[in-house]
Amino acid sequence: MRIKIFFLEKFYFVKFLYLIQSAKSFNLLIFMRVPLTGAYAAAEAMRQINPDVVAAYPITPQSPIMELFAKFVSDGKVDTELITVESEHSAMSACVGSAAAGARTMTASSSQGIALMFEILQIAAGLRLPILMEVATRALSSPLNIHCDHSDVMSVRDSGWIQIFCENAQEVYENTLLGLKLAEEIKLPAMIIQDGFITSHSVEGVNIFDDEIVKDFVGEYKPSYSLLDIDYPITVGAFALPDYYFEIKRKQEEGMRETKKKYLEVGDKLKKITNNSYPYFESYKLKDAKYVIVAAGSTAGTIKEVVDKIREKGEKVGLLKIKLFRPFPAKEIKETLEDKKIAVLDRSLSFGTFPPIYSEIKKLIPDVQSYVYGLGGRDVFSSDIKKVFDDLKNKEVSDEIRFLGLRE
């Protein structure tokens, strides 16, 4: 039995009180539905987590995340040590030092900032430091462009960081909680990825759960070691010659593979708070679908609308929305997509070869068509998605890359 009771707070806050009855007990779930951008949803989750250290440098379209969080710091709503540095390279360097000292550590970045961090991203992953980074995706230069595509996160997809993609602000909020818990349990850094401007600057209703419930979920961070523990001295960033480097990297890979299992376990715990599920990917009307689009990020929302409209005409189409991209759930995706005709939409290029998500799917299922769309923030319309489904029905799959919305 589910009972809904509504409380009006101020002029736009609505508090929902759910009582979920089971055979054994009652669970009390309290949340407020608040109008937030994706950037502010990320900052709100960070406030509830109350990390020990945040180090960041402003860059569009990530800046609103840190602007709001900095306000939380100045207003005394968090106990966080906020470090304002001179570059993104320095931001990630500070995060490495903080995490190595045993502090719960977070940051945020985009585009050229992530590119400038590249050296230190590898170090953070190699040292198994559970740093959480909020990312608002943005095109890489050159030419200079401040709008959305996935070039930045795809350029570091093999850096050893967990990568979780979000469709909307609600997913940004919830995945931040999941990602932090996952990173700290598996001891690997994680990126929570939202589309710049499209998600980061658009306002929508977000369910924000009670502070104490969230605090209980993330728990108190207990690091495995600390540089500040003088009773247990350690070496961080040691020099590894050929006789040990290979084995260390193998252990890092094992940790990433173990992340798949832990992701589901942490998701099951979070589900008890949110009543939402956290699979590796979202299967939208896939069970009986003959034609399927694979995509990640905010465009999934547009695809869902087109799927619904086409299904009204009796045609069996569907969407597989990537959520966990690193580690990549290859076995599970292959089992889901077998016997279907597939188009993969990438919002980035891998110059001289095939786009990144397409390459992952192509390894699993040969009958796949590649599409690149939305580079530099180019809009994608329902008509573009319908064209992809029409192509799947009427054209043979080829090894060529097709481009959506490209001017002739």
Structural overview:
- The protein is built from 12 helices and 17 strands.
- It is of the alpha/beta class and 408 residues long.
- The chain has a 7-stranded mixed β-sheet with strand order 5-4-6-7-9-8-14, sandwiched between helices. The protein has a 6-stranded mixed β-sheet with strand order 11-13-12-15-16-17, sandwiched between helices.
- The longest helix has 33 residues.
- The termini are far apart.
Question: What's the main sheet like?
Answer: 7 strands, mixed
**Rg over alpha carbons:** 21 Å
| Mean pLDDT figure | 93
Distance between the termini: 57 Å
Overall 3D form: globular
Report strand order across the widest sheet. Answer: 5-4-6-7-9-8-14
Query: H/E order of the elements?
Result: EEEHEHEHEHEHEHEEHHEEHEEHEHEHE
- Number of helical regions: 12
What share of residues is helical?
Answer: 25-40%
* Total beta strands: 17
Unreliable spans are 1-27
Q: Hey, roughly how much beta strand do the residues contain?
A: 15-25%
Global structural class:
alpha/beta
Strand and helix layout:
Blueprint: E1 2-9, E2 13-21, E3 26-37, H1 38-49, E4 53-56, H2 63-74, E5 81-84, H3 88-100, E6 105-109, H4 111-126, E7 132-137, H5 151-155, E8 162-165, H6 169-186, E9 190-195, E10 203-209, H7 211-218, H8 242-274, E11 281-284, E12 291-296, H9 299-311, E13 317-322, E14 324-326, H10 330-337, E15 341-346, H11 356-364, E16 368-372, H12 382-394, E17 401-403
Parallel strand pairs: 4-5, 4-6, 6-7, 7-9, 8-9, 12-13, 12-15, 15-16, 16-17
Antiparallel strand pairs: 1-2, 2-3, 3-10, 8-14, 11-13
Helix pairs in contact: 1-2, 1-6, 3-4, 6-8, 9-12
